[in-house]
Amino acid sequence: MLRRNCLLLFLCFLFEQSSCAPFQSRPGQEWPRQTGPSAAGRNGGSRGFQRVKRGWVWNQFFVLEEYMGSDPQYVGKLHTDLDKGESAVKYTLSGDGAGTIFTIDQITGDIHALRSLDREEKPYYTLRAQAVDVETNRPLEPESEFVIKVQDINDNEPKFLEGPYTASVPEMSPVGTYVMKVTATDADDPTYGNSARVVYSILHGQPYFSVDPKTGVIRTALPNMDREVKELYQVLIQAKDMGGQLGGLAGTTTINITLSDVNDNPPRFSKSIFHLRVPESSAVGSAVGRIKAHDLDIGKNAEVEYNIVPGDGGAMFDITTNEHNQEGIIMLKKPLDYETKKAYTFKVEASNAHLDPRFHNFGPFKDTATVKINVLDVDEPPVFSKPSYAMDVYEDTPQGTIIGAVTAQDLDAGNSPVRYSIDWKSDLDSFFDIDPVRGTISTNELLDRESIAQHNISVVATKVSKYDNPVLTSRVAVTVHVLDINEFPPELAMPYETFVCESAKVGQVIQVISARDQDLPQAGQRFSFKSPQEGVKTKNFTIRDFGNNTAGVVTLRGGFKRRSQEIYHLPVVIEDGGLQMLSSTGTLTIRVCGCDTDGSLLTCSAEAIFLPVGLSTGALIAILVCIVILLVIMVLYVGVRRQKKKETLMTSKEDIRDNVIHYDDEGGGEEDTHAFDMGTLRNPKVIKENLFRRDVKPELGLCPRRPIASQNSADISNFISQRLQEHDGDTSAPPYDSLATYAYEGEGSVADSLSSIESLKGEMEEDYDYLNEWGPRFKTLAGIFEMSTWASFGQRYF
C-alpha cells in the first residue's frame, strides 16, 4: 500500500506542470474571481481599473486514503503571484478538518494530511484558503474555497449481506432451472477504477449448479438430480472485485439447496406373497392383518391406495389405508366359518393417489402382491337353525300341549351334543316348558289372550363339552302368539242415553247403536242386532239392523206423551260372527222429551208437565226473580228490626252497684285490655270450684236466678267475687260466654231488665209456619228464617 502511494506521488510530481496543474498555480491563466496586483504597478504607474493577470489559482486537491507513511502526507501547495519569495505573504486555512486533519505551511503554502483518511467514512473535505500580508495581516486576496477529495483505493471486499441462503428446486429438473439470485455489495467507489466491480464464481457445488458471473443467478447444471439419491446440496459462492483480476478482494457465502420431491417413484411391495392367519370367531369389521407397499417419495407423493383385485376370496375381505404410515389394513367383511372354508387367496394392488404426468414414461405407478389367509378353527357355541322362531297357540290350551320346537347344532368337527333351556328372566311366570334334548316347547299353564296376547321368551342352547373347556351357549328369541277363541259375547259399545220426542213420527230413527267384543280381532268383527222375539212386532219401538255393525232404534207409532209414560225400556239382542256364535241382550232406556219444531231437545223433566199451560220460559224466570226479591226484602227487614233492639237503654253512671259502661266500639274479646282496665274485676282469691259443663246446650225455659243484693256495697271487690262464685256454681248457665247481672237494676226503670237472656223467649216466639201454607217451594224460605234466628241468637250470646 505504501509503495503504491509513493508511486502515485512520484507520477504527480513528474506531471506537475501539466496533468497535475490543480496542485499549483499557473502564471498567466485567467480566473474571474481572483484579482492580482494593480496594473499600475506593471505599466508605468498608470492608475485606474484594468484587467490584470490571475494572482493564484487552484481547483481541487486529491489525497490517497489509508496512507500508512510515517510522515504527513503531502496534499498540495498554495501560491499567489503576489508572493515574491520574500516571506511577506502568509497563507491561512479554514474549513473541514483545518488544523486537525489538514495543516498548511503559512510561508510556503504547502498542505499536508496529518492522519490516514478513509473514503468510505468521508469522501471529500471542503476548505477555505486566504493569503494575507505578514506585517499588516491584511488580506491580499479574497478568501477562496477548494475541495480536498479522498482518492479511493481497493480496501473493501464484496460482502453478502443476506447470507447464508436457503433455496429449493424440484428434483429431476432440467439443466438451467432457476434456483435463486445472490447479490454482493462492495463499499469502494464504483466511479473510480474497478474497485467496486464484482464478479461471481462458484467454489463448491459443481457440477450440480452454476452461477452467472455478472448477475449472481444460480441455476442447475446437471440433469435428473434425484432426491432419493441426494437431497441436500451445499454450494459456496465467491464475489471478487477488480473485475475478478489478480489482487482483487473477495467475499464468499453459503447456499443450502434442497431438492423438493416429485412423484417419480411407484410404490413397491417388499415381497410378492403375504401370509396371514385369522380365527373363525373374528367379528365382522375387525382387522385381519397389515401389508405395506413402500414408496421412496415423501408427502402426498408417497400416499398409497390399496384395492383388492376381484377374484377368489376377495368378497370376504376389504382393505383400507392407514393415513399415518400408509399401511394397508385388511378388514373382515363377512363372517368366517372354518368348517365351510379354511383358506382364502386374493391379490392386492397398491397405487399412487397423486400422479405426475411428466413421469408416465417411467412405467405404471402400481404394484401387486398376493395375500393368503388361513382360517383358524375355534370352539364355537351351537348355532340355531333359524335366527328367531314364531309359534301360535290357542288360549285355554291344556297344560303340556306341545306348541313347537327349536333346533341347534354344533358345527365344530367334534359335533358335541346340545342341551336346551328357557331363560327364566324371559318367562318369570313359567308359562312354558322345553324338552332339554329335543327342544320341544310346551305349555305349562293355561294361557289367556285377554291378559297376555304375546309371550317373548329366550331359549338357551348349551354345548356339552367332553373336556374342561368353557361352557359355550347361544340364544334365540321365540315369540308365542296366543290365538283368541270366541269366549266373550258382544255388548253395547256404550251406555246410550236415548230419547224420543213427543212429536216423533212413525218409522223415525231416534238412535244409532253399535257393539263391541273383547275377542280378537277388533277389526273385521261382524255383529247383528235384533229384537228379542224376531217376528213379533212391539207397539212402540223396534230394532233395524243396518248390516254394517250398527243398528237403529225405530219408532212404531207416534203421539208419545210424558203424562202417560215418561220412560220406555227396549231390549236388544246382539250376536257376533264367531265359529261358536255368542249373543247377549242389552237394554236401552228411552225417555220421552219435549222438542221444538225442528226436533231439538228442550226438556225431559217430568215436573214440566204439571206447569200451567200457556206459561213460557220467560214467564217462569220472571216469577222466580220476583220471589227472590221478596226474600231479600224480608231478610233486610228482619235485620233492621234486630239492630234496633240492640240499642242501650241504661246510660246512668250514678249506680255504684253495677256500672254498665256504654261505648260504641266493638270489643276485641277477652284479650282486649285497652278499652278498660280488667284488673279491677279480677280477684286472685277466687277459687275455681263447681265448674259447670260447657258441652251441652242450656234449656230455653230456664231463666237466670236473680241474686240477693249485697248488704256491704262499699266493698265492690268482695261483692263481685261473691257473685262470680254463685254464677260459676249455677248449672243452668249457658255453655258459652254470656252477660250476667250481679245486682238489682233499680225500681221503676223504664228500660226494664238489660239482660239479653230474658229477651230470648220473646224473640223465639215468632213462628214462620205460615210460610209452609204457601206451598212446597216456601218450605226452604221458612227454614232459612228459622236458621237466621238461631244464628242471631248465637252471635249475641257467644
Topology:
Blueprint: H1 2-14, E1 60-64, E2 73-77, E3 89-95, E4 102-104, E5 110-113, E6 124-133, E7 144-151, E8 165-170, E9 178-181, E10 199-204, E11 209-211, E12 217-220, E13 232-240, E14 250-260, E15 268-269, E16 273-279, E17 287-294, E18 304-309, E19 317-321, E20 327-332, E21 343-352, E22 366-376, E23 383-384, E24 388-394, E25 402-405, E26 408-409, E27 418-422, E28 432-434, E29 440-443, E30 454-463, E31 473-483, E32 491-492, E33 498-501, E34 509-516, E35 527-530, E36 541-545, E37 550-555, E38 567-576, E39 583-595, E40 601-603, H2 617-645, H3 716-728, H4 760-764, H5 779-797
Parallel strand pairs: 1-7, 8-14, 16-22, 24-31, 33-39
Antiparallel strand pairs: 2-5, 3-6, 4-5, 6-7, 9-12, 10-13, 11-12, 13-14, 15-17, 17-20, 18-21, 19-20, 21-22, 23-26, 25-29, 27-30, 28-29, 30-31, 32-34, 34-37, 35-38, 36-37, 38-39, 39-40
Organism: Cyprinus carpio
Domain Cadherin: 80-160, 161-269, 270-384, 385-492, 492-610
GO biological process, one term: calcium-dependent cell-cell adhesion via plasma membrane cell adhesion molecules
Please tell me about this protein's structure:
The chain has 798 residues and is mainly β. It is built from 5 helices and 40 strands. The strands form 11 sheets. Strands 33, 35, 38, 39 and 40 form a 5-stranded mixed sheet that branches. A hairpin with a 4-residue loop joins strand 36 and strand 37 (550-555).
